[in-house]
Every structure is written in C-alpha cells, then in structure tokens.
Amino acid sequence: MKIWTERPAATDVEAVVRGYFSLLRAGRVLEAERLIDHYPIRHVLKSLWTGSVEASADEDEASGSPVADEWEQDLSWLGELDLADFHWGHTGSHVTVEITYRTQLIEVALGFWVRPTGPGWVVTGPATYW
C-alpha cells in the first residue's frame, strides 16, 4: 500500500488510482487490492460487472458476454473498462472517478478518499456510486 508522510497532491493520488485500475484491467485483482486501503473487492467487481457487461448484454443479446455467474471466474471483461473523468470534492480529500465500458460511460463510478493513518496518508476505497 502506498503511504505518504505528508498529505499527497491530487496528481499523486490520481497516479495511484490509475495504477490500481490498470491492475484491475489486467485481472491482477489481488495486487490492485494491496495497492490501496481497500474495501471488499468482490463488491467492487460485482458493481462494475453489473454496470458494464450485464447492462450491455441487456441491450445487445448477441454480445457473447459471459453469463452472470461466470463474472468471477473469467475476468477478461475488466480489460474493456477504462477510466474517464476525475472529479475532486471541494475539500480535496475525496475523488470520484467515472468509468467507461467499450468507450461508453457507465452508471457506476468509483470513489476514493485520502485519509491520514498512523504511519502517514493513504488512499482508501473504492466505494461504488450509482
């Protein structure tokens, strides 16, 4: 987990979020989970699945997408997600990140916080926003 001795700049936090998301996209879920002070990963993955592949399959029945019970075994769908815009809260301690699936913005966004801990500052999250 990345720990800063002083409150990190927004660009530093965004770099950690981008690294986290790159690991997710590559299916390296356990590494992604260790990069930040993480909430339960299964909830995050299920929300991303529901907001992307499952929503897309509803619109396009011929998509060949994995069925709902396969989303945990075959993580290849994560490679079709990408980060869109970062939106910082007015206090600078929270950032919401929009997500795209096959270049289309999805209904799920991820929220991250910058929080002080005993040894320093960490990024926590992500929360899922609908």
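Above is the first protein from milestone M3; the second protein from the same milestone is given next.
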Amino acid sequence: MYHRQRPLPVPAFWPGGHDHFEPAAFDGDLTTRLLAIDLYTDGAPEGTPSMATLIRRPPDAPAFEPGWAADPRAFVHHWEGGAWRWTLALWGRPLSLAEFDRVVGSMPES
C-alpha cells in the first residue's frame, strides 16, 4: 500500500510523549490521498487522551467520518494546514488550547 512506502504524517509533539505511539494507517484513498491513521489505541500515559485518530484529506474531498464521528465520548478537533484539512479525534480528554497549538505546529508539511 502507498502509505507503507512513506512516513506517516504524524505530529512531532504529543502530550505525554511518543513512547506509546504506534501509528497505523487503517484507511486511505490513492486518488484523493485521504489518509486515516490510528495514532495509538492503548497504553497512553495517565492524564493524556486514551485513544487518538488522525484524518488527512484534501479540502475538496468529502468528510471522512467513520463510526466514531457519532460517538458522544469523542473529542474532535478540526483545522486546515497546507493543502489539507485535518481531523483529530480523541477519547479520554480533549487537548488544551496550548497542546492543540503545539500538535498542529509540529505536523509535517506533507
């Protein structure tokens, strides 16, 4: 798969560090270059979000909203950067404004 041939676009900063990160693409589209990545699903340090999913899509692509989009326990952040629209879904707790700014600022320009 295409996403296995290139580094995944994940933030260089994450609250609690990267020790528990296990980024894995679970969906994507070669035509639009949409990419859906689980950043981690368990083992998060206490006080950090317990799960995190990152979605990258072009601005003109339809929203990618798997089942968690309707989960009332999910905290969802959206932003635009470069040629992409990004969605970050978290469980356990949302990012603070300072954390969110650092995460967004640490994203690669892919």
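Note on the second protein: Residues 97-105 form the longest helix (9 residues).
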